[in-house]
Amino acid sequence: MKSSAHADRNGQIQLSGSGKLLVEMWLDVGCPWCGIGWARLQRALSEFDQCEQVVVVPRSFRLSPGVAPTPLVQYLAGRMRAPDDKVRDMLRHVQEQAASEGLSFHLDGTLTGDTVDVHRLLQFAQSQGKGDELLVRLFRARLSEQVSIYDHDNLISIASEAGLEPAAVAAVLKSNALRSEVDADQRALNDLGAGGVPFFRIGGEYTLSGAQPQETIAQVLRQAWEAQSASSR
User: Could you read off the pLDDT of 2-52 as tens digits, one per residue?
Assistant: First the structure.
């Protein structure tokens, strides 16, 4: 299920092999529902008979472009025009949903903001065959450990734990490398008429919006695989 694909200039994913089922997931590491959606996708794939024929490609989406790192409760309270207590109740609900998936989220006290550097780093990790490892580590740092993913030193440390060379990571972060790839992913999702994440496209045709239940993802995986198999006969 490792990524074995690349995006062309128009943001379309090109698979390097034939007969594979492509699963694209647009996400933002700062989004708790994306962490839940990723966990549900992995569980659905673990029970999918053709899981070895699936290529999963995480794709970039910046939920808060241009937003400086801001306490999450403060940001949501302003955006929702709601009191802090209501925001905290909402975050507790998200944490309960995460717990039902075996995830331990601690959201109050974390920061939110523009994740452009995080996405550039994820693009780099995918090119090095470490995309999934870094993504999982970033989710844990951001959603469970309350580590700021907006600090370059933290990102270098996290990426090193995921198996990337610190010097190479630092070079990516100091530059504007892979920004065009991040922007292309964002445009591709906008072109689909979607404005939020998580968002799944399976087999290039079947789409799911939001952190759908594992059973729903599994059903669409089977449907997409059957359709793709039928079309190749």
Answer: 445 555 555 566 665 568 999 999 999 999 999 999 999 999 999 999 999
Burial of 149 (0-12, 13-18, 19+ CB in 10 A): buried
Q: From CA 143, how far away is CA 102, in angstroms rounded?
A: 13
The CATH number of 5-231, from 3.40.50.300, 2.60.40.1120, 3.40.30.10, 3.10.20.30, is 3.40.30.10
> Using CA atoms, how far apart are residues 85 and 188, in angstroms rounded to an integer?
36
The amino acid sitting at 193 is: G
- pLDDT value of position 19: 84
- 46 CB-near residues (< 8 Å, 6+ apart): none
Residue recorded with tokens 């673990």: 46
Residues 46-78 have pLDDT tens digits of: 999 999 999 999 999 999 999 999 999 999 999
Element (H, E) at 233: none
List CB contacts of 209: < 8 A, sequence separation 6 or more: 194, 196, 198, 199, 200
Q: For 216, what's the count of Cα atoms within 13 Å in the CB-facing half-sphere?
A: 11
Model pTM greater than 0.90?
Answer: yes
Joined tokens for residue 90: 């909402």
- Phi-psi sector, 184: left (phi>0), alpha (psi -120 to 50), beta: alpha
Q: Which residues pair with 56 in a beta bridge?
A: 23
